[in-house]
């Protein structure tokens, strides 16, 4: 290849990719260049294996606005993206897609509005972080959507200092779960037994949000939670 041809070759791009809707996943770094990835599909195939996606990755989105990336040329050096299959983009609180220690100051107001005493973001990325005074005021639960094996569990933080109203909890679950069947009417354990009150919730456990339909006994944990032990049990606070 001539020196002129080398000069015309586009520079490599460094990007970080997250799993759709997964606040637990710390992201994977990729170096994207024409020599390694000839097509956008080849890059998506690499992403699928590297992030251990439950299904093939077919779409990339920007984490802040959910804009779809159509081709390799659309990737921007130093930017972050969210990988998804054919399911819709899962909009988390934007700061959850940023790795520990890199929350932009712009998002601090969002965190403050969501949590009067915000949980320490570093607890979202380590299995044992007991040093955070912020985290000590919260319980954390992970919730799957009934019958949905495409979407990772979403995080449900509840303040220890605020009395839990079950109707309010179900309303919050309805908003966060966005079930195709409509409102969340009950919360079940992974074995299908129904939780009847807040006193039965166990900090750090996994649950399934269910609407009017029957509970669907599926391998939610096995298929949607990373196998790395560092990310299986997250909430020891």
Mind explaining what this structure looks like?
The chain is α+β, with helices and mostly antiparallel strands and 237 residues long. It has two domains: 13-103, Roll (Ubiquitin-like (UB roll)), CATH 3.10.20; 139-223, Roll (Ubiquitin-like (UB roll)), CATH 3.10.20. The protein is built from six helices and ten strands. The chain has helices at 3-8, 40-50, 108-114, 166-177, 220-224, 229-232; strands spanning 13-19, 28-32, 59-61, 68-69, 80-84, 138-145, 154-159, 186-189, 194-195, 206-210. The strands form two sheets. It has a five-stranded mixed β-sheet with strand order 2-1-5-3-4, covered by helices on one side. A five-stranded mixed β-sheet has the order 7-6-10-8-9. Strand 8 (186-189) and strand 9 (194-195) form a beta hairpin. The N and C termini lie far apart (58 Å). The relative contact order is 0.14. Residues 99-135 and 228-237 have low confidence and may be disordered.
């Amino acid at each position: 290849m001539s020196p002129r041809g080398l000069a015309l070759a586009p520079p490599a791009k460094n990007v970080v990719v997250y799993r759709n809707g997964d606040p637990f996943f710390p992201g994977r770094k990729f170096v994207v260049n024409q020599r390694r990835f000839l097509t956008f599909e080849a890059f998506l195939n690499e992403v699928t294996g590297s992030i251990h996606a439950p299904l093939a990755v077919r779409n990339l989105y920007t984490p802040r606005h959910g804009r779809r990336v159509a081709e390799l040329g659309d990737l921007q050096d130093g930017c972050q993206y969210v990988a998804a299959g054919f399911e819709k983009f899962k909009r988390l609180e934007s700061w959850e897609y940023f790795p520990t220690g890199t929350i932009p100051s712009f998002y601090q107001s969002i965190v403050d509005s969501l949590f009067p005493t915000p949980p320490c973001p570093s607890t979202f990325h380590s299995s044992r972080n007991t040093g955070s005074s912020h985290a000590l005021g919260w319980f954390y639960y992970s919730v799957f959507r009934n019958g949905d094996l495409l979407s990772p569990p979403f995080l449900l933080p509840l303040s220890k200092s605020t009395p839990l109203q079950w109707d309010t909890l179900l309303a919050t679950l309805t908003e966060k779960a966005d079930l195709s069947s409509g409102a969340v009417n009950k919360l079940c354990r992974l074995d299908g037994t129904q939780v009847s009150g807040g006193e039965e919730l166990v900090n750090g456990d996994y649950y399934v949000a269910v609407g009017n339909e029957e509970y669907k006994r599926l391998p939610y944990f096995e298929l949607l939670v990373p196998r790395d032990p560092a990310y299986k049990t997250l909430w020891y606070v």
